[in-house]
Amino acid sequence: MTDYIDLQPVKHVQGAVRLPGSKSISNRILLLSALSQGQVAIVDLLASDDTAVMLAALRSLGVQWTEEKTATGTIHHVTGVAGVLPNKSADLFMGNAGTAIRPLTAALAVIGGDYTLHGVPRMHERPIGDLVDALNAAGTNVEYTGNPGFPPLHIKQGKIITERLSVRGDVSSQFLTALLMVAPLMAKDHAITIDVIGELISKPYIEITLNLIRRFGVKVEQTGWESFTIQPGKVYQSPGTIHVEGDASSASYFLAAGAIAGGPVRVEGVGKDSIQGDVRFAAALEQMGAQITMGDNWIEARSSGPLKAIDADFNHIPDAAMTIAIAALYADGPSTLRNIASWRVKETDRIAAMATELRKVGAVVEEGADYIKVTPPAALTPATIDTYDDHRMAMCFSLTSLDGALRKGATVRINDPKCVNKTFPEYFNAFAKIAK
Ligand SMILES: O=C(O)C1=C[C@@H](OP(=O)(O)O)[C@@H](O)[C@H](O)C1
Ligand SMILES: C=C(OP(=O)(O)O)C(=O)O
């Protein structure tokens, strides 16, 4: 029997939400800490499925970590292994966490050993071939045990035999992130250069990667988005204590709620100096007519009349862009989200899933290989929303219960709401708190 949650129409939203830690920052910091020299204290790590698989994998690899509960949150203490993993063989379950499997594959391939990595069925449909090709061309030994180009993987001992790697950047930026994170392990006696083939997508995620690599003491020289060079002889050094920002993608649901149904709604934990590209979601909402204010560690959204339709390129914020597709239901005309082909290879085929579920609430939807056009209905239709084991489908569609300035929300049933555990286990409680 399908588990579900029923949401009644919400007339007004208001309040403040303390965001959970950023998934992207959490999993990067965990791996960098494990590879570094020294002890790292990680404050406010995200507690969710995606970080749980990374933490479990590190433990299976012999990396020691402990969790300390404090009055204000949590501190994870990780003892770095300076690039030498205690366990030379392990079988690792990666769930559906792209930010865990891609960088870990690169790390284990470069370090070498006898490792298997696998995940949920959807993980075995998510591409990893561009990363494996880049690694194996450089001398690692990574094999597919299922379909070529996809997990599961078997990693054996290899040996890096090149100073220059190239990787495709047009399917997922996580492949370049993975190579950048392990480049210092390859750059023992000579510099390593990574060239990007094809137009790099999701560029702000590379900025997160570079920012965190630098905080662990390694410099990367960058030539546009085409080439990255890491100087030899550097080992990641513990930054001591490192703080995880609140998740800017998770912020998008609350900010959109404020923009649609009154507000003000404030998210706490990210602000104007955030290293996450998804804070630029606020600018897209502003373009739609919402009123946005930002502080060092908070962002606030409120509506000022009906939302305006938007037609824009969303390649830089692929995750938060899903929330724009929902805000489009409350806009004054058709909206088009362009350059989002990567949606098709994420937790589900998000262009297809979004189109199907938006039609259930009455929208007219046109989808293409890399775009979606949403024409809002005169009134939202009550619907049962399928979520495709995709946390963002569940979180996005909760917003269809909101009454906007132009049209009223509908009663909505969200099937399998627990899929939010991937990044935001407390999502529906947080949403209920701002619903008045
Ligand atoms: O590097 C990261 O932390 C991420 C990169 C993006 O993926 P793509 O580069 O595959 O678009 C994003 O969708 C994902 O949720 C997190
Ligand atoms: C695409 C996503 O996740 P992943 O890190 O598994 O790629 C996401 O969280 O929207």
UniProtKB/TrEMBL annotation:
Involved pathway(s): Metabolic intermediate biosynthesis; chorismate biosynthesis; chorismate from D-erythrose 4-phosphate and phosphoenolpyruvate: step 6/7
Ranges for domain Enolpyruvate transferase: 8-429
Gene Ontology cellular component terms for the protein in this record: cytoplasm
Residue positions binding 3-phosphoshikimate: K23, S24, R28, S172, S173, Q174, S202, D319, K346
Gene responsible for this protein: aroA
PROSITE patterns registered for this protein in UniProt: EPSP_SYNTHASE_1, EPSP_SYNTHASE_2
Positions that bind phosphoenolpyruvate: K23, G98, R126, Q174, R350, R392, K422
InterPro entries (UniProt xref): Enolpyruvate_Tfrase_dom (IPR001986), Enolpyruvate_Tfrase_sf (IPR036968), EPSP_synthase (IPR006264), EPSP_synthase_CS (IPR023193), RNA3'P_cycl/enolpyr_Trfase_a/b (IPR013792)
Keywords: Amino-acid biosynthesis, Aromatic amino acid biosynthesis, Cytoplasm, Transferase
Protein name, per record: 3-phosphoshikimate 1-carboxyvinyltransferase
GO biological process: amino acid biosynthetic process; aromatic amino acid family biosynthetic process; chorismate biosynthetic process
Functional description taken from the UniProt entry: Catalyzes the transfer of the enolpyruvyl moiety of phosphoenolpyruvate (PEP) to the 5-hydroxyl of shikimate-3-phosphate (S3P) to produce enolpyruvyl shikimate-3-phosphate and inorganic phosphate.
Subunit structure, as described in the record: Monomer.
Gene Ontology molecular function: 3-phosphoshikimate 1-carboxyvinyltransferase activity
Species of provenance: Duganella rivi
Catalytically driven reaction(s): 3-phosphoshikimate + phosphoenolpyruvate = 5-O-(1-carboxyvinyl)-3-phosphoshikimate + phosphate
SUPFAM superfamilies cross-referenced by the UniProt entry: EPT/RTPC-like
